[in-house]
Design brief:
Structural class: mainly alpha
Shape: elongated
Helix content: over 70%
Distance between the termini: 50 Å
Largest sheet: none
Mean pLDDT: 82
Number of helices: 7
Length: 159
């Protein structure tokens, strides 16, 4: 009984310290956006009768290549958010952390490419979904970059 109490208290302290640790701004928006995009692409890859699959099959193989790029970049964004923002400091994915703006801008570019490819396809709602996610990627990239610049300026001013 006593061991379980100690384990529970240790786990609680770890969770509290994880939640209280300062994180870069917009980490939750980045994580949600990448998870949302990955879920949208998963419907096309996994479900044989989904609206995404039907629309992308109607467009041709170039749409599937772009969707593959979207999937890969969304996975990079998820790993970046989990490793660099949620895990302890000793774990890091520096490549993604340094290129976060570029990762989200490429994701936005690929999503807007899908919008362009789908404009002659059968699904208008699919266009709206890709356009909304692409615009959100641009906004998150810009807001996160502005927050990073402000953080660097504050740290330079205090040094």
């Amino acid at each position: 009984m006593h061991v379980i109490t100690l384990m529970h208290e240790g786990f609680g302290r770890a969770v509290v310290s994880l939640l209280m640790r300062p994180r870069p701004q917009y980490w939750l928006a980045r994580l949600y956006l990448c998870c949302s995009v990955l879920l949208t692409t998963a419907f096309a890859w996994v479900l044989p009768v989904s609206a995404q699959k039907v629309a992308l099959d109607a467009i041709g193989p170039e749409a599937w290549w772009v969707l593959g790029g979207v999937t890969a970049i969304a996975v990079v964004g998820i790993v970046d958010s989990i490793v660099n923002d949620l895990m302890p400091e000793r774990y890091h994915f520096r490549w993604a952390d340094r290129r976060r703006y570029q990762v989200f801008m490429v994701l936005a570019l690929l999503l807007w490419t899908l919008v362009w490819l789908c404009q002659h396809g059968p699904s208008v709602l699919l266009i709206a979904r890709y356009a909304l996610d692409g615009t959100a990627c641009v906004l998150v990239a810009v807001f996160d970059t502005v927050a990073r610049v402000k953080q660097v300026r504050r740290s330079m001013g205090s040094a």
